[in-house]
Amino acid sequence: MPVERSLRVADAAVIVHPDADAASRDVADRVIRIVADAVAARGKAVLGLATGATPEKVYDLLADRVARGAFSFRDVTTYNLDEYYPIQPLDPLSYRHYMHSRLFGRVDLAPNRAHVLDGTVPEFAAAEHAAWFDRWIEADGGLDLQLLGIGRTGHVGFNEPSDLPPAEFADLPTRLVDLHPTTRADAVREFGSPEAVIPRALTMGVRQILAARAIVMLATGAKKAPIVAQALKGPITAAVPASLLRTVADKVVWVLDEAAAAELG
Ligand code: GLP
Fold this sequence. Notes:
The protein is of the alpha/beta class and 265 residues long. 33% of the residues lie in helices and 19% in strands. It contains eight helices and eleven strands. The protein has helices at residues 20-42, 56-67, 95-102, 126-139, 166-169, 181-191, 206-211, 225-233; strands at residues 5-9, 12-17, 45-49, 76-80, 82-85, 114-115, 145-148, 175-178, 200-203, 215-219, 252-257. An eight-stranded mixed sheet has the order 1-2-11-10-7-3-4-6, with helices on both faces. Helix 1 (20-42) packs across helix 2 (56-67). The longest helix is centred in the N-terminal third of the chain and has 23 residues, at 20-42. The chain starts with a strand and ends in an 8-residue tail after the last strand. 42% of the residues are buried. It binds 2-amino-2-deoxy-6-O-phosphono-alpha-D-glucopyranose (GLP).
């Protein structure tokens, strides 16, 4: 039976699993461990959560554990990375809806502790709403874990490639952003047509992501192989947002399947 392998690419800790299911099981186990440790230490755990196709299986596994009485979100608070803008929470394409159907509605997480950026705030209030999101995270003591996926542009959350110097990029707060054309093209899968894709989003800032006490990046499938290799082996640059994770390498683990790891050599 094929087994996982661990490698270091530059300074990054990378675990490669034979397939996406095994990678997802690994990530679900890490979430459970980190929650248990944080609850034991502080009486609560604060999780940063991601959307997209990649973490779906992780949420299934977590919901199954809760259904079996083997895990609980009783002492957990969550903050999601991003939300389309503008969008209504009941829109099936909203990330609020995604989270409700895949996780929140299936587990014992208190509804008032599941934070998703609000795609209905008027534009003049978006910056204030984003600043409050950062303040809430800080008031909760910061994130014990940020779960990440990676976009084909290298984005984390919806922090798209930029020409800012890395230190300035690393300090970006939660804010309203424009989506990269590649990200919009990938979103046609959910929205049905290029014209239907919502071209803007609210995203947690790079600052808040990098400040998490632990970061788990999950990437699976051959389509992610080129950007995973660029992020891990190329220069640390805002042009490849996920490469900034190497500036906090000691608290980051990259969990991949063989397909996503194919270009790491
Ligand atoms: C999405 C999300 C990201 C996600 C990434 C990859 O648009 N905003 O948080 O990590 O793009 O998505 P997927 O997992 O579907 O490949």
